[in-house]
Amino acid sequence: MSAAPRAVVYDPRAIQEFRAAYRRYAQRSPARAQRFQLTMNQVIQRIASAAEQGSPYRQRYRWMRLRRFPYLVYYEIRDPLPVLVYAVAHTARRPGYWLRRRP
Prior knowledge:
The protein is α+β, with helices and mostly antiparallel strands and 103 residues long. Helix content is 37%, strand content 24%.
């Protein structure tokens, strides 16, 4: 029997990163922007249902890659609290830039 999905909450800067990326894709191709949003939703659903599947990062964090897009979602599993998404990071960004966001 599988566990109930976890709640997922977002650092406000992660939301800003997602929206900025979405706008960039929308300027070039509305269809590509929709695929980006759908892919992001799929990753968040995977995190909610099986957060432990993400690749470990620095012992307490994990990440999942968006298929066909150069973005990673960095998050922390906080039991019994919800999963906290820290960043929607482009793979070309400096790794770990978002670590100062942690509470």
